[in-house]
Design goal:
The chain is mainly alpha-helical. Among the domains are: 30 residues; 115 residues, no CATH class. 45% of the residues lie in helices and 3% in strands. It has 23 helices and 6 strands. The strands form 3 sheets. Strands 1-3 form a two-stranded antiparallel ribbon. A two-stranded antiparallel ribbon has the order 2-6. The chain is globular. The N terminus is likely disordered.
Amino acid sequence: MKKIIHHHYTTWALLLLLSGIVSCKSDKDFLMEKPTTFYTVENAYSTSAQIDQSLIAIYSQLRDLWANPAEEGWIFVFRGNGTDMYDVASIRRGSTFNNYGLINPDNGTFFNFYSTWYQLIAKANLAIWAADLPQISWATPADKAYALAQARFFRAFAYRNLGEIFGGVPIVTQPTTVPQYNFKRSTRVETYQFAIDELLAVENDLPVTTTAGGRLVRGAAQHNLCELYLALGTQLAAEAKTTEANAAFAQSIAYGNKVIDGGTFSLMKNRFGARSTEAQGNVYWDLFQEKNVNYQDGNKECIWAIQIDYAAYRAEDGKSKLPYSRTYSPVFRDGAKDHLTGTAENVGGRGIAQMIPTMYTRDDIYAGQWATDMRNSDIVFRRNFIGNVPSSPYFGQVVPWNVMYNGSADPVTNMNNRSLCYPVSCKIATDKYTGIADGENMSNLFRDDYFIRLSETILLRAEAKQRSGNKQGAADDVNLLRDRAACTYRVTAADMDDNFNLILDERARELVYEECRWNTLLRMGGTIAVDRIKKYAYWPEAKATLTFNYNLWPIPQTVIDTNKDEKLEQNPGWQR
């Protein structure tokens, strides 16, 4: 890619030089553009390596979407802000995504989400089209098949996300070279089915494993097929197509089985990795330490991970970081400043609380019989913070939560403080920050991060079993995770409630800061999303302003308005 850019600028330098030589020509002739080199869709690709660079650009886009190095507000929503699990701190009320007096089809978050997936689809379409150009030479047929498999996976992945969030959307499979104003919406079922067909077509062209981390493997396609068939079955059931729904659930279970029982992936049940000899940790904590995330690191639970590289960050790639300690960690120095201050490891790094866990995420899911759980241990979900302000009566001691939460006679101040002070997950902070000697300030983690972890596959299969009527099988799957987490309470078939609260609670315990919660809630349909937002949102505006039901986000109004030659129907609940 650097060679292409260099050649482009060299060409324009020559054109500028030639413009001086031909200056005696008429103004009209001079103003006529006659470039000797002009890049078009047809001639932009000349080697298979350039197509691979297009794929790398998609990997890079997904990394930035996931890690959010630029700290874009809409990406915090993509990662779950505004759901039952996350909200905003008192100091960031202006960026709330829970005030439905402000949330409508004109909201930029919806357009950013929608357009980002179509940008990815456009890149994938171009790579798929270019792979068959006559001037492209491939080292082996397998190389071409893998390139196409990655591109079609990305296209399917984008449509899965669009289908779960927006329902039926236009299916675009070719590069678009001229303006088009007549895109037609598919149905939600058709969107899911398109993504399924794409993944079925390339499943066996993806390798079982790779030598280096980050590249797609077969398990990633099978995991997404598990989720897509589950989503398809849920939608078919909502349309009262019971037989078809059950067939889809059976396929979801079958693809879950391929991943879970296929012999390639397995839950990590024993200490492993770079810090496994340290007495303080446990196997769940090991999953989120530097050099432990990739399958190639011995982590058999990792199906697909984004790649973060500290050396690249220092040299040229300033986005190669996880700014989680900055964006997700609490601000004790504001909320509990009489007892805790600073930006050190013992308070979760240099947190500014861009997105906070709700009381549901931090406390409710661990209440009562759910408390004894490795995922609730202090090393994993730190709740014990030692006072570091000399004048505090808790200096050198654990500061009680009732002191942090209720340190004022003013209930408004207490509510604000509770939004700034909360437990710190090992997924967003560490006790050993990389780069301190180089001037880093405990804002960033420099480990890889999961796109797909086997735990989520297990929870998807559990849901598919429950939707098939097999509640005991669903409970058995949930207990695979609860056994690994050394929980004292094991769930039973009776716990598998029809509103999927048990599944959603277990997802919150296992996948906090990992899953895209909006996808989960909206995929489930009905009033699940609305009910849980009203119940668990931190601030009262959600319950006060969410006065209508929805189970899809609105099609962005900008998209509807610009598609002038074909009417795009707005999703229920969002019509003007």
